[in-house]
Amino acid sequence: MLKRTIYIGNPSYLRLKQHQLVVACTNTKEPKGTVPIEDMALLVLDHPQITLSTQLINRLMGNTVAIVHCDNHHLPSGLMLPMAGHSQLTERWRHQLAASIPLKKQLWKQTITAKITNQKELLAKYQQPTEAMNVYLQKLVSGDETNMEGKAANHYWKYILTDFQRERFGEAPNNFLNFGYAVLRSIVARALVSSGLLPAMGIFHKNKYNPYCLADDIMEPYRPFVDLLVLEYITLHPTEEELTQQAKAHLLTIATQDVLIDAKKRPLLVAVTTTTASLYKCFTGERRTILYPLMV
Amino acid sequence: MSEQRYNAYRVMWILVLFDLPTETKAERKAASTFRKRLIADGFVMFQFSIYMRHCPSRENSKVHVKRVKSSLPKYGKVCVFEITDKQFEMMEIFHGRKEIPKPQPVQQLELFYFLFSIKCKNHL
């Protein structure tokens, strides 16, 4: 089911009333709107003057709603997820933790294949050279030992944006990309938790300071969808450098972007859960391939 | 394009209309329990004794119809029906003879910027 993304961008008081999220004015406590919690997927909090009740947080966690906090630069800085998003939690963790190294390497190869394929599709969409990408796809080996991901990324960024340096804290459109990726990461982490997987144990990423290694692995093939949204936005607003509310509203539509998964057209939010469910089946040995999206 | 896709998921609205007896204390209690359960399930009041709920798909609307059926009071008349988002959109509402805007369709992405939106802009 396609669930809802709620973005709060001004001072408000959020509380629970009869299983509904009530958004109220900070001063008057007058309700401005209600949302059924079971229909929600993401709650994005982007203002310092937002108050939440503990009851509400508890109920959000009970319904696997990811709470995303944004910092002073309006970039997502924190993500809150439930401890148990799935009833068979420990069994699923056991399968995940017992995954063999060859399996993880195979899964990583599939992930990078999907990522490079989507990057290639996007380059083709913008009439840029794609031949090199085919070469990288052919040279891809188990575990991506030859680092074709990096080589493909180099080619991709060179052609997709002119005069651009992809950096973590760089100039626009880096800020747009960062916002989009952060939202995508929350969506993926939420889907992993709801499939009963441990987002900290990645198949490739293993930075000891990163609590979302697996989310970072699984989101790779989804990144080009964010890139597409950013490209669309900067084509429409070429002079804009700031991450405005309008820009964020555009980027938050990532959840409803159409993707092709398992030969079906689905919104991205639904596709991510398909991917995480197939990943779990790979860990148990029921499947050999993860289902990843394709550009439409 | 995405918005169309969201509609292609066959967005539905459920309407619940009821006339419940409120003669005795027990009947009033049953009526208010029924109403509260509707609210807890995400229904909002449209008119007195008419509640409605937005459902993103047909499968989802079936779930909520089932829930309404499971909380029916012993006495009184209740009518439950579903309409598509398209039919909902064609609704006309009047206050007196003046036409008033219909409820906003529910979006997948909802942005709450009701107050201080100018202040927010400056802040950015």
Automatic annotation (TrEMBL), chain A:
Top-level taxonomic group: Bacteria
The molecular function GO annotations come to: endonuclease activity
Q: Which residues bind Mn(2+)?
A: E149, H205, E220
- Key words, A-Z: Antiviral defense, DNA-binding, Endonuclease, Hydrolase, Magnesium, Manganese, Metal-binding, Nuclease
Q: InterPro entries attached here?
A: Cas1, CRISPR-assoc_Cas1, CRISPR-assoc_Cas1_C, CRISPR-assoc_Cas1_NMENI
Q: Which cofactor does it need?
A: Mg(2+); Mn(2+)
- Identify the EC number(s): 3.1.-.-
Enzyme class, spelled out: hydrolase
What assembly does the database describe for this protein? Homodimer, forms a heterotetramer with a Cas2 homodimer.
Give a short account of what the protein does.
CRISPR (clustered regularly interspaced short palindromic repeat), is an adaptive immune system that provides protection against mobile genetic elements (viruses, transposable elements and conjugative plasmids). CRISPR clusters contain spacers, sequences complementary to antecedent mobile elements, and target invading nucleic acids. CRISPR clusters are transcribed and processed into CRISPR RNA (crRNA). Acts as a dsDNA endonuclease. Involved in the integration of spacer DNA into the CRISPR cassette.
Per the similarity annotation, which family is this? Belongs to the CRISPR-associated endonuclease Cas1 family.
Specify the protein name: CRISPR-associated endonuclease Cas1
The beginning of the lineage is:
Bacteria, Pseudomonadati, Bacteroidota, Flavobacteriia, Flavobacteriales
What's the encoding gene here?
cas1
UniProtKB/TrEMBL annotation, chain B:
Top-level EC class as recorded in UniProt: hydrolase
Q: Which domain of life does this protein belong to?
A: Bacteria
Q: Which SUPFAM superfamilies match?
A: TTP0101/SSO1404-like
- Sorted UniProt keywords: Antiviral defense, Endonuclease, Hydrolase, Magnesium, Metal-binding, Nuclease
Give the EC number: 3.1.-.-
Which InterPro entries does this chain map to? CRISPR_associated_Cas2, Virulence_VapD/CRISPR_Cas2
* Record-stated family: Belongs to the CRISPR-associated endoribonuclease Cas2 protein family.
HAMAP family the record matches: Cas2
Biological role stated in the UniProt entry: CRISPR (clustered regularly interspaced short palindromic repeat), is an adaptive immune system that provides protection against mobile genetic elements (viruses, transposable elements and conjugative plasmids). CRISPR clusters contain sequences complementary to antecedent mobile elements and target invading nucleic acids. CRISPR clusters are transcribed and processed into CRISPR RNA (crRNA). Functions as a ssRNA-specific endoribonuclease. Involved in the integration of spacer DNA into the CRISPR cassette.
Specify the protein name: CRISPR-associated endoribonuclease Cas2
What organism is recorded for this protein? Tenacibaculum tangerinum
Q: Which gene encodes it?
A: cas2
